[in-house]
């Protein structure tokens, strides 16, 4: 408790530390470290909040917790442990969600400083808004693997957490998942959907059966434009009977899904029957959509009977426990049968409409997904993965180590001294990296303190956004749940139509229930209409300008445009978007290489760098590109198709074969980070560095 | 106790419990690295706050054994950052006082304490370890241990924190490791649209690290170094001043004699390098060891130990400086003369 001993700190800082009241949000990897640093520095008035309980896999870094604490409240155990370091501190622990309405603006106003150590964007956005409202400085931090970052957010002085748009989560088009997977992740997503179809809450966009309406399966027009409905109608005559039936089935998606679940139940979850349906009949069906396989390798259906090896029933259970081994296809079939049995048993015991929720830490659920993903990978000639690797991808596990958390939390509390002293200019963001940059820094402070974005839809005065939305297909309930809550991170918004003042969505329960099922257009929410949203609890008001567009198949039904000036007349839109995407892409790549070469491999949410050495930065547009790679030849083959597909190398480069590294001659161009930097400490270099560090790859998570 | 020396084989399989406990880090550095960690024997000499931080991180990572060596007793000053020693342990031996909490961090690691003075430890003692980390020793002592370690092929790291300022020096001799070299491929199509793909290529490297004498012989006042000093700030200069203080007075500056010691420090600074960029304010935060700075330096040092043990990724070469004012952490390459 440094501040309790006279002479350790300079006198002014000593006083500030002694009398300040601080809030720590999150008692995970960074939170434990922050709390320790605070009590040892001599802060005596501390509150800490976390809704989580302690898990065994936390113990490699959340050092305030031990084995006997597993299952207990993180906030409370962290408090107990920290008090043993400094019994004179006063720590209040809340085992609760920081987004609960119990912690309003007045709660936040009590503090001189808030340190956030969260692991998800929704809570970060919320804490950001509360601190802006309460006008309390916020030190925001996060780590992922070797990367860490700390930044100050202060109203009117700095950027807020939401001033810069964050990367969206990676998502895949439905037909890639259902018809034409080309990467392990596609099969993993499909397997999770299959789990939900059978046992979980089945969602409309999680169909797993072949998609007969895949535009790829149709003969192409010259210009590649998707056909209008009436043209499809004409073509129908030429389709086979099955395809026609399938099309009608998918048109009533819901019925098909319920039937799959019911059908599985009716077959008593017979492993052979289910296996053959998903991995033989459905694949045979896909093969009939012959256009799909003109430029792709066709899938090979597998048959349950052929995978039954004799006399191996004894060690069946053990196969599933070999987490690091890549199971053979026969072993996958075994694990499939065993996990199916367990899951169906549990499922049938549920009451009423209850369903299972997929959880990476639930053993049969994880076994099932690993087995199904691998069988599907095998069918499509995609590299199979170990259960361990699949868990990373399926569970979005972000690797975490004690040292990065310690370093990041240390910097957080170092910054809090400067904040208390109001030395704002010395509170520039800091990034922790594995490897030093060109100036030999690996703990890298930003060159400047970026000011607020005047167009930020959170911290600007009178914020407004344009919402591109298909008003003919989206319902009011979805406007609230998907757009306002999930995307714009409101908690419980009220929405009125500006021109008429009529209430569209009310935060009072039941008040606007009759609107929920209606389409926006039915309530006359059409192009040009302005909505006023107000989240009372967050003290947040936002104007939304509606801009209608007709969404394509597989396209999102809405998109938030934070800066209205980005909207261009409709016919130019398409073109411009692609160009922008490309420019962004380019920027990302340069940015990454300039900011330390390890960045790109660690920032993906899904895998450890070991399992996915190749990563394509962007892949959801309609470019013409196929990359194929051999294990021993980094050869780039470019083939024109109308759909992007990237084939991962059959064996990943993680295999250690240093001597066989091929020279770079086959690679079109290399941007090696170290070569990219000018050598001397020139002006030019400094500005480059500033640019790179002010736009770092965002680290989104800790846990 | 003497640790079994026959554990350098990495054919061992991790148990299910280990796999579960170390899951999040195995996903970062891989199974092979975790197996290497499991065989590593580490010495931490000097259980000050920094020693406690390094100890914590190393134990959490899942090494084979850690020996805590210290002949000093717990003082009030330790409560600024030494969280392994409980309040009740005031005036008892620091290494022994740290044992219970260190063991609670990870029951799978073999942890022992040794209260003999570092100065009395001979070559045989250091030979038991794969990595030796020494905190708060004088330059003479560091040089002696470095020489022993270089003879034995033991990797050696010297480190320290004064207040919020810290450093380490890595004397790793010949070190080989594997690092993933990331290349960015531009993949173009007919429309000249550019795509990027990153490819990681595991590459074997060998690097030579000079001994601690390289730092002792390093001339910070050399004109060739001045420009660098200006760019990176006064860290290396501050380190020289503090080490000179320790050598001259056989102790560190104390908060109990704050003003007098500040005067002595200013004297050393002006003698070493008149009109330097090392301001008086930077000297105000060098007392005791302040927890957040110790966390940063302790985190960095522990990560270096992990890199050395796992032979994955390049250890920084070879002088690390943490600048508390900017929170910059940077590396100076000190070559042997």
From TrEMBL, chain A:
Subcellular location: Nucleus
GO molecular function: ATP binding; metal ion binding; SUMO activating enzyme activity; transferase activity; ubiquitin activating enzyme binding
CC terms in the record's Gene Ontology section: cytoplasm; SUMO activating enzyme complex
Binding site for Zn(2+): 160, 163, 456, 459
GO biological process: negative regulation melanotic encapsulation of foreign target; negative regulation of receptor signaling pathway via JAK-STAT; positive regulation of antimicrobial peptide production; positive regulation of Toll signaling pathway; protein sumoylation; receptor-mediated endocytosis
One Pfam family matching this protein: ThiF
Entry superkingdom: Eukaryota
Ranges of residues in domain THIF-type NAD/FAD binding fold: 9-457
Ranges of residues in domain Ubiquitin-activating enzyme SCCH: 181-306
Ubiquitin/SUMO-activating enzyme ubiquitin-like domain sequence ranges: 467-552
Family, similarity comment: Belongs to the ubiquitin-activating E1 family.
Compositionally biased spans, kind Acidic residues: 661-678
Protein's organism: Drosophila erecta (Fruit fly)
Residue positions binding ATP: 26-31, 50, 58-61, 74, 119-124
Protein's recorded name: SUMO-activating enzyme subunit
PANTHER family noted in UniProt: SUMO-ACTIVATING ENZYME SUBUNIT 2 (PTHR10953:SF5), UBIQUITIN-ACTIVATING ENZYME E1 (PTHR10953)
From TrEMBL, chain B:
The THIF-type NAD/FAD binding fold domain, residue ranges: 22-324
InterPro entries assigned to the protein according to its UniProt record, in alphabetical order: ThiF/MoeB/HesA (IPR045886), ThiF_NAD_FAD-bd (IPR000594), Ubiquitin-activating_enz (IPR035985)
CC terms in the record's Gene Ontology section: cytoplasm; SUMO activating enzyme complex
Protein's GO biological process: positive regulation of antimicrobial peptide production; positive regulation of Toll signaling pathway; protein sumoylation; regulation of mitotic cell cycle
Sample GO molecular function, one term: ubiquitin conjugating enzyme binding
UniProt xrefs under SUPFAM superfamilies: Activating enzymes of the ubiquitin-like proteins
Chain segments annotated as transmembrane: none
Family from the record: Belongs to the ubiquitin-activating E1 family.
Protein name: GG17124
Organism listed in the record: Drosophila erecta
Lineage: Eukaryota, Metazoa, Ecdysozoa, Arthropoda, Hexapoda
């Amino acid at each position: 408790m440094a501040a309790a001993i006279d002479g350790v700190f300079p006198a002014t800082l000593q006083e500030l530390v002694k009398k300040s009241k601080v809030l720590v949000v999150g008692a995970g990897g960074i939170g434990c470290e922050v709390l320790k640093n605070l009590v040892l520095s001599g802060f005596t008035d501390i509150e800490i909040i976390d809704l989580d309980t302690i898990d065994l896999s936390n113990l490699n870094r959340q050092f305030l917790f031990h084995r006997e604490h597993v299952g207990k409240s993180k906030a409370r155990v962290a408090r107990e442990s920290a008090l043993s370091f400094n019994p004179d501190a006063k720590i209040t622990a809340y085992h609760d969600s920081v987004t609960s309405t119990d912690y309003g603006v007045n709660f936040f106003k009590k503090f001189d400083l808030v340190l956030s150590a969260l692991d998800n964007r929704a809570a970060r956005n919320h804490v950001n808004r509360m601190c802006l409202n309460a006008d309390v400085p916020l030190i925001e931090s996060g780590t992922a693997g070797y990367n860490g970052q700390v930044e100050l957010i202060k109203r009117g002085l700095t950027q807020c957490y939401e001033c810069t748009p964050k990367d969206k989560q990676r998502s895949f088009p439905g037909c890639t998942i259902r018809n034409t997977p080309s990467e392990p992740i596609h099969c993993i997503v499909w397997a999770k959907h299959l789990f939900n179809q059978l046992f979980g809450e089945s969602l409309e966009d999680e169909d797993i059966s072949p998609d007969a309406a895949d535009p790829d399966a149709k003969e192409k027009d010259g210009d590649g434009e998707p056909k209008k409905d009436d043209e499809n109608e004409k073509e129908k005559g030429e389709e086979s009977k099955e395809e026609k039936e399938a099309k009608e089935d998918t048109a009533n998606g819901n019925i098909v899904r319920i039937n799959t679940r019911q059908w599985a139940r009716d077959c008593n979850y017979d492993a052979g029957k289910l296996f053959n349906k998903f991995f033989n009949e459905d694949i045979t069906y896909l093969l009939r959509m012959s256009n799909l396989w003109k430029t792709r390798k066709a899938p090979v259906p597998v048959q349950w009977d052929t995978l039954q090896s004799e006399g191996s029933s004894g060690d069946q259970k053990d196969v599933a426990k070999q987490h690091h081994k890549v199971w053979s296809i026969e072993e996958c079939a075994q694990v499939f049968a065993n996990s199916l049995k367990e899951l169906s048993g549990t499922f049938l015991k549920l009451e009423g409409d209850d369903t299972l929720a997929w959880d990476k830490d639930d053993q049969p659920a994880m076994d099932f997904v690993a087995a199904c993903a691998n069988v599907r990978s095998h069918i499509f000639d995609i590299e199979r993965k170990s259960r361990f690797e699949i868990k990373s991808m399926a569970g979005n596990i972000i690797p975490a180590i004690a040292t990065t958390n310690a370093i990041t939390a240390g910097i957080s509390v170092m910054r809090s001294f400067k904040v208390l002293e109001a030395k704002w200019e010395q509170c520039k963001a800091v990034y922790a990296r594995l490897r030093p940059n060109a100036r030999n820094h690996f703990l890298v402070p930003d060159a400047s303190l970026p000011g607020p974005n005047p167009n930020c839809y959170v911290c600007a005065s009178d914020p407004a956004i344009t919402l591109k939305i298909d008003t003919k297909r989206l319902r009011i309930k979805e406007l609230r749940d998907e757009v306002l809550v999930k995307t714009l991170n409101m908690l419980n918004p009220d929405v009125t139509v500006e021109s008429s003042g009529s209430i569209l969505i009310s935060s009072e329960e039941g008040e606007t229930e009759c609107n929920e099922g209606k389409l926006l257009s039915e309530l006359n929410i059409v192009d040009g209409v302005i909505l006023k949203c107000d989240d009372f609890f967050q003290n947040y008001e936002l104007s939304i300008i509606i801009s209608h567009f007709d969404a394509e198949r597989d396209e999102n039904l809405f998109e938030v445009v934070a800066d209205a000036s980005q909207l261009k007349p409709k016919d130019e839109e398409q073109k411009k978007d692609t160009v922008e995407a490309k420019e962004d892409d380019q920027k990302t790549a340069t940015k990454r290489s300039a900011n330390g070469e390890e960045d790109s491999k660690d920032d993906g949410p899904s895998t450890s760098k070991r399992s996915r050495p190749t990563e394509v930065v962007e892949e959801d547009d309609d470019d013409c590109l196929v990359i194929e790679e051999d294990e021993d030849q980094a050869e780039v083959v470019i083939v024109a198709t109308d759909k992007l597909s990237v084939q991962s190398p059959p064996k990943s480069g993680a295999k250690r074969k240093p001597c066989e590294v091929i020279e770079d001659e086959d690679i079109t161009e290399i941007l090696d980070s170290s070569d990219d930097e000018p050598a001397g400490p020139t002006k030019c270099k400094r500005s480059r560095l500033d640019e790179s560090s002010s736009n770092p790859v965002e680290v989104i998570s800790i846990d | 106790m003497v640790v079994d020396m026959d554990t350098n084989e990495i054919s061992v399989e991790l148990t299910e419990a280990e796999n579960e406990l170390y899951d999040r880090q195995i996903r970062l550095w891989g199974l092979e690295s975790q197996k290497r960690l499991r065989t590593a024997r580490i010495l931490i000499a000097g259980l000050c706050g920094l020693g406690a931080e390094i100890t914590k991180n190393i134990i959490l990572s899942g090494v084979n054994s850690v020996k805590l060596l210290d002949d000093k007793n717990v003082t009030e000053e330790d409560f600024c950052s030494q969280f392994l020693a409980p309040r009740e342990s005031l005036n008892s031996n620091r290494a022994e006082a740290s044992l219970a909490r260190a063991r609670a961090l990870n029951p799978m690691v073999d942890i022992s304490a040794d209260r003999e003075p570092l100065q009395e430890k001979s070559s045989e003692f250091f030979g038991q370890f794969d990595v030796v980390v020494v905190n708060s020793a004088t330059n003479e002592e560091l040089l002696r241990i470095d020489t022993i370690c270089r003879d034995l092929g033991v990797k050696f790291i010297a480190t320290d924190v004064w207040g919020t300022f810290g450093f380490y020096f890595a004397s790793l001799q010949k070190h080989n490791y594997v690092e993933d070299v990331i290349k960015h491929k531009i993949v173009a199509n007919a429309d000249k649209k550019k795509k990027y793909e990153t490819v990681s290529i595991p590459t074997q490297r060998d690097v030579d690290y000079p001994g601690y004498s390289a730092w002792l012989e390093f001339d910070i006042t050399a004109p060739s170094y001045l420009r660098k000093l200006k760019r990176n700030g006064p860290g290396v200069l501050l380190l020289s001043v503090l080490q000179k203080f320790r050598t001259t007075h056989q102790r560190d500056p104390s908060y109990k004699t704050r003003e007098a010691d500040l005067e002595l420090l200013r004297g050393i600074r002006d003698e070493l390098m008149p009109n330097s960029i090392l301001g008086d304010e930077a000297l105000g935060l060098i007392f005791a060891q302040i927890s957040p700075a110790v966390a940063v330096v302790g985190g960095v040092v522990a990560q270096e130990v992990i890199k050395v043990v796992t032979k994955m990724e390049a250890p920084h070469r070879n002088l690390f400086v943490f600048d508390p004012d900017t929170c910059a952490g940077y590396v100076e390459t000190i070559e042997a003369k």
